[in-house]
């Protein structure tokens, strides 16, 4: 499985081309470079025929370090150039230290001439030895580099058609670049066992049909992280693979009717899903399509069976503690355990909340952290709040009101009781509650309806923002101090208080 240590930093170039200009610049090299550019691959090519000075050398060395691939065109006179041999030494070094992928092209020379240093390569090395000395460090390095890189699998062009030969090279590079590990997350806590579960659900050993599965859960629960980790784990088993971060982008035709892995992230409506993964017949046998969404109804209405819907749940306590302590650098910031427990209780196992809150204790005093934790109930973190609010914004007006009523007044009560109260308000609680469950905003559990405390705090903040400084002008009240204050001012006009206020009184009495 991909880990944070395997994720590469962003590099400047896809490909570095190493070549002897007088041999190939006006024919093979120019055609190869043009084709790479047409494919949208950023390619470094040294255009200086007369290379002089340390500045140029350093630029070449840096370009090699900042490339994903190095294509070495071993032509007849390649080894006669000290510049080329120095590039080769650097490429060999980066192959080991920076995971540079090296692809040799034997252009009208036999591979054995390079690795055994015979023929034109033998004559070139003998000439270098006569100038620099047989045992010079430079010559020794060059010989080792030629032997090492010459032993790699590559392409041998002799009498083939150049255009077809170049197309093979470019297609291989394109495919490998597409399969570079995606950036998953800094700390993959609790991910590995979930990937194992999903591997089993995907039935990867069977190629007899196309399987679609869904990853479902609320915002911030880790669906995208899990989808990325799963993609990195299994993508090499497919002819083509694609992780569409923004599914509004068109599905590439080259994936259709092949055995492919397709991950659709952040699916929000049925039209998107139909456009990108409408029917299994679009894809070749053995394909796997993974749909990540906050809305379970999208999955079931698309024909995905309940057995193939994976609910992404909060982290277990020990995983939540591990993730928070990693983010907070607690080995260097010895925060009291009761404060840590307060964070864990607030975050409720949500990875996003743990990571966001984990950044606060760094280089803060315990008093500052204690104050922040105390205020979170009244001033929710904006990043966390906005993540959950996105699900709320997409609801219709009735569903919004049902959600806010449950969050502020009824969470934890029996479903039967809540449905009766909502029905008396002329809502349609049967479909309204079902929609909220499908969108991961409320949870049905043992005949009760409850809510993640982060989502509940988001709902309460929506009501609070109706009138931040005057609770009496808000549509709902749930805090005893606010209720007492408003009641004392409204006592004379109590009979005219709206139905929400009356329900609140009933709720307190209950």
TrEMBL record:
<dbReference type="InterPro" id="IPR044974">
    <property type="entry name" value="Disease_R_plants"/>
</dbReference>
<keyword id="KW-0520">NAD</keyword>
<dbReference type="GO" id="GO:0007165">
    <property type="term" value="P:signal transduction"/>
</dbReference>
<keyword id="KW-0611">Plant defense</keyword>
<dbReference type="Pfam" id="PF23282">
    <property type="entry name" value="WHD_ROQ1"/>
</dbReference>
<dbReference type="Pfam" id="PF01582">
    <property type="entry name" value="TIR"/>
</dbReference>
<protein>
    <recommendedName>
        <fullName>TIR domain-containing protein</fullName>
    </recommendedName>
</protein>
<dbReference type="InterPro" id="IPR027417">
    <property type="entry name" value="P-loop_NTPase"/>
</dbReference>
<dbReference type="Pfam" id="PF00931">
    <property type="entry name" value="NB-ARC"/>
</dbReference>
<dbReference type="GO" id="GO:0006952">
    <property type="term" value="P:defense response"/>
</dbReference>
<keyword id="KW-0677">Repeat</keyword>
<dbReference type="InterPro" id="IPR035897">
    <property type="entry name" value="Toll_tir_struct_dom_sf"/>
</dbReference>
<keyword id="KW-0433">Leucine-rich repeat</keyword>
<feature type="domain" description="TIR">
    <location>
        <begin position="11"/>
        <end position="177"/>
    </location>
</feature>
<dbReference type="InterPro" id="IPR058192">
    <property type="entry name" value="WHD_ROQ1-like"/>
</dbReference>
<dbReference type="InterPro" id="IPR042197">
    <property type="entry name" value="Apaf_helical"/>
</dbReference>
<dbReference type="InterPro" id="IPR036390">
    <property type="entry name" value="WH_DNA-bd_sf"/>
</dbReference>
<dbReference type="InterPro" id="IPR000157">
    <property type="entry name" value="TIR_dom"/>
</dbReference>
<dbReference type="InterPro" id="IPR002182">
    <property type="entry name" value="NB-ARC"/>
</dbReference>
<dbReference type="GO" id="GO:0043531">
    <property type="term" value="F:ADP binding"/>
</dbReference>
């Amino acid at each position: 499985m991909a880990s944070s240590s395997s994720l590469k930093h962003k590099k400047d170039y896809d490909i570095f081309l190493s070549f002897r200009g007088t041999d190939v610049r006006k024919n093979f090299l120019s055609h190869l470079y043009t084709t790479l550019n047409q494919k949208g691959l950023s390619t470094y090519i040294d255009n200086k025929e007369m290379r002089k000075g340390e500045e140029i050398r350093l630029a070449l060395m840096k370009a090699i370090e900042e490339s994903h691939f190095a294509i070495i065109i071993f032509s007849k006179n390649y080894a006669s150039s000290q510049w080329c041999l120095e590039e080769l030494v650097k490429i060999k070094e980066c192959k080991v230290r920076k995971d540079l992928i090296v692809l040799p092209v034997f252009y009208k020379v036999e591979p054995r001439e390079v690795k055994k240093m015979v023929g034109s390569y033998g004559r070139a090395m003998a000439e270098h030895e006569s100038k620099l000395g047989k045992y010079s460090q430079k010559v020794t390095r060059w010989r080792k580099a030629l032997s090492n890189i010459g032993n790699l699998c590559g392409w041998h062009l002799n009498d083939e058609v150049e255009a077809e030969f170049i197309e093979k090279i470019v297609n291989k590079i394109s495919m490998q670049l597409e399969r570079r590990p995606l950036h998953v997350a800094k700390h993959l806590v609790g991910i590995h066992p979930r990937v194992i579960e999903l591997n089993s659900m995907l039935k990867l050993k069977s190629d007899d049909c196309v399987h679609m599965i869904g990853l479902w859960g609320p915002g911030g629960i880790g669906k995208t992280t899990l989808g990325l980790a799963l993609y990195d784990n299994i993508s090499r088993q497919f002819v083509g693979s694609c992780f569409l971060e923004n599914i509004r982008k068109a599905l590439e035709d080259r994936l259709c009717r092949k055995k492919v892995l397709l991950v659709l992230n952040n699916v929000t409506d049925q039209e998107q899903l139909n456009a990108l993964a409408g029917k299994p017949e679009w894809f070749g046998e053995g394909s796997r399509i993974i749909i990540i969404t906050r809305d379970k109804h999208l999955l079931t209405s698309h024909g995905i069976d309940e057995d193939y819907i994976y609910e992404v749940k909060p982290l277990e306590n020990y995983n939540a503690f591990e993730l928070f302590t990693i983010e907070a650098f607690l080995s260097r910031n010895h925060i009291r355990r009761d404060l840590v427990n307060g964070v864990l209780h607030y975050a409720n196992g949500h990875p996003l909340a743990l990571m966001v809150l984990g950044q606060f204790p760094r280089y803060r005093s315990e008093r500052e952290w204690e104050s922040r934790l105390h205020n979170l109930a009244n001033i929710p973190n904006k990043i966390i709040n906005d993540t959950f609010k996105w699900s709320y914004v997409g609801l219709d007006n009735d569903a919004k009101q049902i959600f806010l009523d449950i969050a502020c007044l009824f969470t934890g009560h029996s479903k039967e009781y809540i449905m009766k109260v909502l029905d008396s308000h002329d809502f349609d609680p049967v479909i309204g509650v079902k929609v909220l469950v499908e969108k991961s905003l409320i949870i049905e559990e043992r005949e009760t309806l409850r809510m993640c405390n982060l989502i509940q705090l988001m709902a309460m903040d929506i009501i609070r923002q109706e009138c931040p400084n005057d609770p009496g002008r808000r549509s709902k009240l749930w805090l005893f101090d606010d209720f007492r204050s408003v009641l004392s001012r409204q006592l004379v006009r109590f009979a005219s208080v709206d139905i929400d206020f009356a329900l609140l009184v009933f709720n307190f009495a209950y």
